[in-house]
Amino acid sequence: MSHPRERLSAFLDGELPVSELSEVESHVRACPECAREIEDLSAVDTMARGLAVEAPAGYFDTLPARVRARVRRPRRWGPMAAWAAAAAAVLVVVVTPLTLDRAASTPPARSLPVQAEPAPVAKSQADAPASTMAPVAAPAANAAAGASAARRQADEQAQGGEEQARAKQEVSSRLVARDRVEAPKLAKKEAPAASEADRGRRDTADTLAFGESTTATPAPPAAAAPAAPAFAPPPPTAGAGTATAAVPSPSADKVVTGAAAEPDAEGGARPAGTRTAGLAGSRERKPPTPGRAYATTDPARLADERYQSLLDQRPATAADARALRDGWEAFARDQASGPRADEARVRAVEAGATAWRLGGDAADLARVRAAARTYLAAESAPQRERVRAALEGLPPE
Amino acid sequence: MLARARAGDLLAFEEIVKRYQRRVYGTAFRIVRRHDVADDVVQEAFLRAHQALGRFDLARPFGPWICRIAANLSVNHVRSPLSREEALPETHAETPVPGGSPLAGVLDIEAGEELARAMESLSAEQRAVFVLRVFEELSYKEIAQSLEISVGTVMSRLSRARERLRAALVPYLGAAARRAEGAGR
């Protein structure tokens, strides 16, 4: 027989069909050339196994936590979508008439109600799936039920509340931060329908910086529990307000549809409609005050506000501390070349150490160690001592 | 660990990611040849594995399963129109492992680079079959199921891939020297 070259590879693997095996085997025994060829193919395999793949330094230190953060989202954005719908409903009901009445000249007053109480349905369902591995569709259904209930509730309870709004503002800054950093990329390649939304979402983020609201990313667990993080967008001026108010309701529906249609592409479908953006740059800029959402599109001012809201946090639970750590890490990444990046990195380590002290969670310990190692290994690490101090009291490695 | 992760323990799942991340990354990178894409693939593979844990037979090994998911995602990515617009990187991120294999001593840097280049010259489909066979040691049937192709296609792709790599590495293979001595082909 002629040289069965195309079958030598399968012969090497023991994968030739029985019907061909004996024929090829007897040929190889009699043919030194084919025997060598098999030897070569085997050597190729061995050489390939000798090639190691290298990822960028530190990549494997952060990957597990990043994956875990993304796993957590689908279970929690159901209630978040309900909150978005509640905030959106308030805007539709309250902001639109107000802004239309006031015309373009007067920015809405501080007392303008931009928050809503949680709808009972949304809240009870929000708690339910947290301990189980709920499929993606379940939170979506929750969101649908929660959204309609929230709209009804919002109709009845469109009243202001300085403290709650402030809590929302703080949480929302974390949400924005995490959302920007962790926007999933693969979904855009895997699911065209979802990818459009996702791309649009990130384009919007780039354009509007932080002068927008997003509820797509879940709040860290316990941090979100006491004051559920609805983030009402700042009251817009008349022209922008009308446009903004028109967005929310249909977009909340879009989330549900997207999630149901693309259960696997959770990264892309998830955040599509929960954003109530559209804050035009014409809005009056004012310093942040309690009870107001971000009222500026100036990136420097927004970074200031975000920084300050992180500084103000005093974590009482491990989950709070984790959220704070994530918030600082996100800030350090977003503002990597800014003057406060170093401080943010150090504070991320400190918050990480606090998370471990409060929760005793091995994952937190590993993460704070990794973050500290990364910091201490950097050429420019002006606050080495502080980072070392943060590690004191942790168990030895 | 898998049982805990399946019961919803996210920390257990994170441990699983830690344990398998390098292996999954290796599978993805060897097929897609770009870190950013491999990163996407790895994350997505773990997310999908998490979603499917409820259906996963705990008696089976997790590693080959997640690598199959990653390989499938990798090929799908490379096939996608988006990826065709992206150029391959200029540098190779594969390096010989010192003492990592019996041939490591022989496998000098030049041979390693030649092999990396040859890997890049393969199609993503060929690389996927090669990686699942050589690194994950899956059967042809398992590879066929993973990549949704026939066993015959697995056989022919693997054969072509190996032949191409072999041809690129002729100067470094012992048999080449013997051929050069006069046996001829």
In words, what does this structure look like?
The complex is a heterodimer of chains A (397) and B (185). Chain A has helices spanning 5-12, 18-30, 32-49, 59-102, 120-127, 137-156, 162-182, 186-190, 192-208, 221-224, 238-246, 248-261, 266-269, 299-311, 318-334, 341-359, 362-377, 384-391; one strand at residues 51-53. Chain A is an all-alpha fold and 397 residues long. Chain B is mainly α. In chain B, helix 2 (10-32) packs across helix 3 and helix 4 packs antiparallel against helix 7. The interface between A and B is large, with 59 and 78 residues. Strand 1 of chain A pairs antiparallel with strand 1 (94-96) of chain B.
Q: Order of SSEs of chain A, N→C?
A: HHHEHHHHHHHHHHHHHHH
Beta-strand fraction estimate of chain B: under 5%
Form type of chain B:
globular
Low-confidence runs of chain B? 175-180
Cα separation of the termini of chain A: 64 Å
**Strand percentage of chain A:** under 5%
List the helices and strands and how they pair.
The complex is a heterodimer of chains A (397) and B (185).
Chain A: H1 5-12, H2 18-30, H3 32-49, E1 51-53, H4 59-102, H5 120-127, H6 137-156, H7 162-182, H8 186-190, H9 192-208, H10 221-224, H11 238-246, H12 248-261, H13 266-269, H14 299-311, H15 318-334, H16 341-359, H17 362-377, H18 384-391
Chain B: H1 2-6, H2 10-32, H3 35-52, H4 62-79, H5 81-84, E1 94-96, H6 109-121, H7 124-134, H8 140-147, H9 151-168, H10 174-183
Helix pairs in contact in B: 2-3, 2-4, 2-7, 3-4, 4-7, 6-9, 7-9, 8-9
